[in-house]
């Protein structure tokens, strides 16, 4: 307003500044960095054109350490933002997952079994696996098979041994591991008229009963001992707490410690 009054009305600068409450220093001030700002803008534009993957950090380090310019990073960043040279951030694509099925609760024994694998290591670092089988109706542990390798044939042998004393289940709930989607297990299930129910990929809560059982086996057994030999792990899984399990005499692979959880 003071500049307009001086230009159009011809009043003095002092009078215009007093009238509008502006100091004469402020009125007479002209930015001295305009040429430098244009230089910075040109350099930033050239850098981002030549190095399209460079963000502000690399551009500023190049100007400071390679070109030797002493400009403050706040100033350079202000010009960088004004030129809208910021790298475009590609938003993450969110996968639309289907609503998981509700966990079914059986109303009698041998309606639905669940089985799942676990892994642990011996004292010398060798890895071994465990196959846990349980009845979903009363959370009864039916068998724990332990060995270095448990292929589909070994899974079938364990199931056959449990069925001898327990009876045949209607459905066995499993995840999508290679042993469970194998042709060998599928043929065995067709032969015995057993349904293999695979949970949805990425939905372990659909196998919640055996997952909770796995945690108990981990905390109450595996984390409590340093197992030196695979035979030791097999013996503990087969004979530990035998008197606590009513079917011990028929189920040599079932651990009584985890029989009713």
Quick description:
It contains 10 helices and 5 strands. With 261 residues, the chain is of the alpha/beta class.
If you had to describe this structure to a student in words, what would you say it looks like?
With 261 residues, the chain is an alpha/beta fold. The chain folds into three domains: 1-30, no CATH class; 32-87; 112-242, Ribonuclease H-like superfamily/Ribonuclease H (Nucleotidyltransferase, domain 5). The chain is built from ten helices and five strands. It has helices at 2-9, 13-20, 24-28, 34-50, 56-66, 73-82, 152-166, 183-192, 208-220, 230-239; strands at residues 112-121, 127-135, 140-147, 171-174, 195-198. Strands 3-2-1-4-5 form a five-stranded mixed β-sheet, sandwiched between helices. It is elongated. The termini are far apart.
Any idea what the CATH superfamily of the largest domain is called? Ribonuclease H-like superfamily/Ribonuclease H
Q: How do the SSEs run, as a string of H and E?
A: HHHHHHEEEHEHEHH
* CATH hierarchy: architecture of the largest domain: 2-Layer Sandwich
Largest sheet composition: 5 strands, mixed
How many DSSP-defined strands?
5
Distance between the termini: 84 Å
Which strand order do you get reading across the main beta sheet?
A: 3-2-1-4-5
Oligomer classification:
single chain
Which ranges are low-confidence, i.e. pLDDT below 50, for 5 or more consecutive residues?
240-261
- Give the C-level CATH assignment of the largest domain: Alpha Beta
CATH topology of the largest domain, anyone?
Nucleotidyltransferase, domain 5
Mean pLDDT, nearest integer?
84
């Amino acid at each position: 307003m003071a500049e307009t009054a001086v230009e159009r009305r011809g009043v003095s600068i002092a009078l215009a500044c007093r009238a509008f409450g502006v100091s004469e220093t402020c009125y007479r001030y002209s930015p001295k960095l305009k040429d430098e700002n244009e230089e910075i803008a040109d350099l930033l534009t050239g850098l981002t054109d030549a190095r399209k993957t460079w963000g502000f950090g690399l551009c500023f380090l190049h100007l400071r350490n390679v070109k030797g310019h002493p400009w403050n990073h706040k100033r350079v960043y202000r010009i960088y933002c004004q030129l809208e040279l910021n790298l475009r951030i590609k938003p993450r694509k969110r996968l639309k997952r289907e609503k998981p099925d509700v966990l079914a609760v059986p109303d009698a024994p041998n309606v639905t079994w669940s089985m799942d694998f676990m892994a642990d290591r011996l004292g010398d670092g060798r890895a071994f696996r465990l196959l846990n089988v349980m009845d979903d109706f009363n959370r009864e542990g039916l068998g724990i098979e332990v060995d270095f390798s448990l292929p589909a044939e070994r899974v079938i042998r364990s199931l056959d041994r449990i069925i001898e004393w327990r009876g045949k289940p209607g459905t066995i709930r499993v995840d999508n591991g290679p042993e469970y989607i194998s042709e060998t297990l599928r043929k065995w299930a067709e032969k015995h008229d057993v349904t293999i129910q695979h949970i949805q990929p990425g939905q372990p809560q659909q196998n919640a009963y055996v997952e909770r059982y796995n945690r108990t086996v981990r905390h109450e057994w595996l984390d409590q001992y340093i197992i030196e030999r695979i035979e030791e792990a097999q013996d503990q899984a087969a004979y530990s707490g035998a008197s606590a399990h009513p079917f011990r005499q028929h189920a040599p692979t079932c651990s009584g410690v985890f029989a009713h959880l």
